């Protein structure tokens, strides 16, 4: 039994396994494509990912003006930001101690207490520039 009160099923197990193996940012459709011959529908993938988000195992992300939701594995001990290609949609994660420190300095100077933040940089990746 899951904490949500729902029973664990073979289908959910396959979706969770596919999500953990995906490594990176993945859409619901991409997850569904990873478990093709399991009789799993889009609604089951959606509900499973919603449970993972509510449990703090996954994060939902929407970049830019996109209506597309991407999911990434949550790591409570690690914060990262994103750089996103505006042509192909490629997403890379990065960490930068200077950015982290500077945003706290800015918030403190304005007498704000930071609870969380998202840093997204948009540009054109090396492959699209080539």
Structure, described:
This protein is an alpha+beta fold and 130 residues long. Helices cover 38% and strands 16% of the residues. It is built from five helices and five strands, in the order H-H-H-E-E-E-E-H-E-H. The protein has a three-stranded mixed beta sheet, with no helix packed on it. Strands 1-2 form a two-stranded antiparallel ribbon. The longest helix has 13 residues, at 10-22. It is globular and about 55 Å long. The mean pLDDT is 85.
Secondary structure elements and pairings:
Layout: H1 10-22, H2 28-34, H3 42-54, E1 58-61, E2 70-73, E3 81-85, E4 91-94, H4 97-109, E5 120-123, H5 126-129
Parallel strand pairs: 3-5
Antiparallel strand pairs: 1-2, 3-4
Strand content: 15-25%
Outline: globular
Oligomer: single chain
Q: Determine Rg (CA atoms, Å).
A: 17 Å
Separation, N- and C-terminal Cα atoms:
51 Å
Main β-sheet description: 3 strands, mixed
Low-confidence stretches: none
String of helices and strands: HHHEEEEHEH
Task: Determine the mean pLDDT.
Answer: 85
Helix count from the secondary structure assignment: 5
Percent of residues in helices comes to 25-40%
**Largest beta sheet: what is the strand line-up?**
4-3-5
Number of E-type strands: 5
Helix and strand content put the structural class at alpha+beta
């Amino acid at each position: 039994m899951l904490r949500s009160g729902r029973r664990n099923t073979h289908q959910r197990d396959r979706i969770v396994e596919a999500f953990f193996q995906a490594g990176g940012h993945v859409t619901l459709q991409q997850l569904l494509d990873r478990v093709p011959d399991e009789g799993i529908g889009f609604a089951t993938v959606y509900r499973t990912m919603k449970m993972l988000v509510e449990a703090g195992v996954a994060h939902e992300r929407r970049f830019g003006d996109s209506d597309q939701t991407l999911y990434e594995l949550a790591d409570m001990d690690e914060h990262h930001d994103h750089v996103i290609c505006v042509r192909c949609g490629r997403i890379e994660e990065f960490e930068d101690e200077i950015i982290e420190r500077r945003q706290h300095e800015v918030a403190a100077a304005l007498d704000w207490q930071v609870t969380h933040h998202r840093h997204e940089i948009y540009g054109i990746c090396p492959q699209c520039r080539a």
